[in-house]
Each structure stands twice: as C-alpha cells, then as structure tokens.
Amino acid sequence: MTINAELLEKIIREAGAIALTYFDDLKNLEISKKGSRDLVTKADVAVEAFLKDQLAEEFPQYGFWGEESGKTDNQSSRWIVDPIDGTHSFTKGQYFWSICVALEVDQQLVFGAVYVPAVDDYYAALVGQGAFKNGQPISVSSEDQLESSMVATGFACLRNHLEENNLERFCRIAQKTTGQRRFGSAAMDICMVADGQVDAFWEQELNLYDVAAGALVAQEAGATVTDFKGNKGVFPKQILVTNGKLLDQLLPLM
After folding, report:
1. Which residues are 125's β-sheet partners?
2. N or C: which end of the chain has fewer CB atoms below 10 A?
3. Does one domain contain both 11 and 125?
4. At residue 238, does pLDDT exceed 90?
5. Same-domain status, 159 and 117
6. Structure-derived torsion over alpha carbons of residues 20, 58, 110, 112, reported in degrees to the nearest 10
7. Domain identity same for 10 and 130
8. DSSP count for the chain of H helices, then E strands
9. What CATH number is attached to the domain comprising 112?
10. Does residue 140 belong to any structural domain of this protein?
11. CA distance linking residue 192 with residue 203, whole number of Å
C-alpha cells in the first residue's frame, strides 16, 4: 500500500488555513454545545467537511469517521478525523488546538498527522518509517527519573458523573514529578511526548479520533502507548504515552 504523504500534508495544511480564518475572527465565531461543557463551532464543522470531501476525492477506497459527522459505511479501512482537537482552547484564542488525521487499515494505524496551525507545527508518521515534525525526524526524551520529569495530562470535559475523574491520579503523579502541564489538546500532548518536549502524558475518557493520529506519531518516535495497566495498544478510554524509560515508574501511580 502506497500513501502519498505529500498530498496528505497539502490537504491537512489547507484544512489548517480554513481553521485559521475562523481563529482570526473569534468575535464572530458561531459556538454551540453538544453537551453541558462539550463545545462545537462552525470552524469544527467546516474543517471536517473540507477534509471529508478532499479525502474522499483523493482516496475513495477508504471510509471516514469524523467527530462531527460520524461514520460512513466502509469502516474496515478508514480515515479517523478530529477537525479541531482542543475546541475550548480554540474559542479562547489560545494556541493549544490541532487538526488530527489518521488512517486505519484492518485495525492497524498506518498514517497519522497532527497539525497545529497557530504555530505551524506539522507532526506526521507512516508506520515503520519514523516520526517527523516539519520534515525533521523527532524522538522521545532520554529522561529516566520520574522525579526529574515533566508530564502532561488532561481532564474529560464531561466528568461530573465519573467515579474516576483523574483528579486523584493527577495529585499522586504531581507529587512525584518536577513539572506538570495541561495544554488542552490530547493530540498535541502526545506529539510533545514524541518530540521530547514532555516525558509522559496520560488521560482518560477520550475517543479514538482524539488520539489515533498522535499515537502513531508517538510510537514511531520511540514512545510506549499503553493503558493504565501497561497493556500495549491505543486505548482512548485510558491512554498512557511515555518515553519508555518512565513507564514502569508511572504505572504504579495509575
């Protein structure tokens, strides 16, 4: 199977340009709610519609699963898309949001891209071919001591009904690490592990479209991707991404 990574980058960067037109005019942005705290904007819908149309035109053999429009019929081989991961950050004028596109074929991730338009960072990976940021190879950090590490996490926007809402887990880990970050886009967080900017990331109650693209980038950069028990794979309801050296130190705190 041949994947035209250059064409995909062009499409995804064009999607980013669409998102930026809304980001640059937030005072006129139409915002609604899918739930009590779960936001959706006209930008989310426009970016996803563009990606859905372009990917269908260029790669008609694959199905589509987008956060806003749902699933097409063919899901055995499909694009998995989050048009704006970090919508709340987007609506506040912050830079911590991203466009996520992954390709899954027969339940295996084979392509992933996370584009951060506000800072023009494009992370991408093809399975077995390494991970890249703006065309340059990236890899995880070499930090091997939890007490010296910087970690990132996030909290489900709808969490008041959750018995485990990540607050206790965050407090345990914060006491054992030097730095803690909460940026607001899981996909960005995962790519920051891939790039060595943070040493580990965990979150729970996500969806596959939040993490699929970033997970492949991280794996290709040398990261471990597991659930909170250390089982390998992409588990959006429990995802722990580490530089590998910190996995055994973090798992007891999960």
Report:
1. 112, 131
2. N
3. yes
4. yes
5. no
6. 0
7. yes
8. 7, 15
9. 3.30.540.10
10. no
11. 14
Work out whether strand 150-153 and strand 200-204 pair parallel, antiparallel, or are unpaired: parallel
Instruction: Check whether residue 215 and residue 242 sit in a common domain.
Output: yes
In the chain, which ranges are continuous DSSP H helix?
A: 5-23, 42-58, 87-91, 167-174, 186-194, 208-220, 247-250
Mean pLDDT of all residues in the chain?
93
Hunting for tokens 């006129």 — which residue is that?
28
57-79 exposure pattern, b = at least 16 Cβ within 10 A, e = fewer: eebeebbbbbbbeeeeeeeebbb
The answer for 206, left when phi > 0, alpha when psi is -120 to 50, beta otherwise, is: beta
Whole-angstrom CA distances from 27 to 119, 141, 146, 164 are 21, 39, 42, 36
SS percent in the chain: helix, strand, coil, step 5: 35, 30, 40
CA distance 202 to 174: 12
Domain C-terminal end among 135, 161, 192: 135
Token pair listed for 189: 């967080």
Q: How many domains does the chain have?
A: 2
Task: Say what percent of the chain tops pLDDT 70.
Answer: 94
The residue range of the domain holding 225 is 146-253
pLDDT tens, position by position, 59-71: 999 999 999 999 9
